Amino acid sequence: MTSATHSPKILVTGGAGFIGSHTVVALVEAGFEPVIVDDLSNSLASVLNGLRAILGRDVPFYQANCNDRAAMQAIFEREALTGVIHFAAYKAVGESVAKPLDYYQNNLGSLLLLLDLMNEYKVHNLVFSSSCTVYGQPEHLPVTEETPRLPAQSPYGNTKAIGEDMIRDAVRANLPIKALALRYFNPIGAHPSAEIGELPLGVPANLVPFITQTAAGMRASLTVYGDDYNTPDGTCVRDYIHVVDLAEAHVQALRKLSETNADASYDIINIGTGRGETVLNVIKTFEEATGVSVNYSIGPRRPGDVEQVYADVSKSNRVLNWHTTHSLAEALRDAWRWQQKIGAKVAAS
């Protein structure tokens, strides 16, 4: 690894979050120097302690909101950045329906500011955190990058689609930015050290932390929403990717951008495993991997849930030279190890 003083500096917005913190680790291990900016509105400062425990040193950190022009400009002025990975965004689907303007202001305003500052300070490489939500319920599976985007089911999902369009249009207008939008499927797991992991504030909205909290006795029962879908066991199907694999994809994306000779470029890439897993199979795999049973019941379908979606990952394999290396069982074991470590630190609400 090159020394930190000569490593390419990468601004990681939302770097104290679940995916962001794991990407910070992957960046350091690959010889980059991440610089975190996070307002801690949806993460905790204790994540920085976890990063220090894994890396053996502190990572530069700025507590700031990515919509704060003065604060962001000061960071660009101080740090000789070579790239940006943009994670920071509000992400609660239900809240976005209730507060759409907040989501448009925060998620799109921050991207607009970043593009402006990248242009001003000649920072050319951008990796954008997008989502498979832009596909909705596709007609054909698995979804490729050519699968048509469908109207978003929530303002949150719409901010991802509009964010992609903003970057595409900026590149078409010859803004000197090389960008990759990574469409994530369902990140799960935790760092094998159990020093960092998914830390939902309040009641989890995602399946795996709800499984681990139920297994730990923090939740009485897990509700499986619907068992009458047209899937192998009637429950919804998703593509669950270990967050460590997802983090590695960002490193490969940065490498790809640095190798791109064009002054401006834009592309989108699916980041998943290429395999669909039912909700019941995830529960079963967790129980087999950990030896811990999960109390669950079948409830009615949840409005807005997509029946099934999983990725065609041939483009990520080919373009990024990236492949997943962690199994579903490994991801669930790591998530459980993390849950055991944080224990009572996660407050039920």
From TrEMBL:
Molecular function per GO: UDP-glucose 4-epimerase activity
Domain NAD(P)-binding: 11-334
InterPro entries to which the protein is assigned, alphabetical: NAD(P)-bd_dom, NAD(P)-bd_dom_sf, UDP_G4E
Its EC number(s): 5.1.3.2
Coiled-coil ranges per UniProt: none
Presence of the UniProt keyword NAD in the record: yes
Top EC class of this enzyme: isomerase
Pathway named in the protein's UniProt entry: Carbohydrate metabolism; galactose metabolism
Pfam families assigned to the protein according to its UniProt record, in alphabetical order: GDP_Man_Dehyd
Catalytic activity reported: UDP-alpha-D-glucose = UDP-alpha-D-galactose
GO cellular component: cytosol
Necessary cofactors: NAD(+)
Entry keywords, A to Z: Carbohydrate metabolism, Isomerase, NAD
Family per record: Belongs to the NAD(P)-dependent epimerase/dehydratase family.
Xref: PANTHER family: UDP-GLUCOSE 4-EPIMERASE
SUBUNIT field: Homodimer.
NCBIfam families: galE
Protein name, entry field: UDP-glucose 4-epimerase
Underlying gene: galE
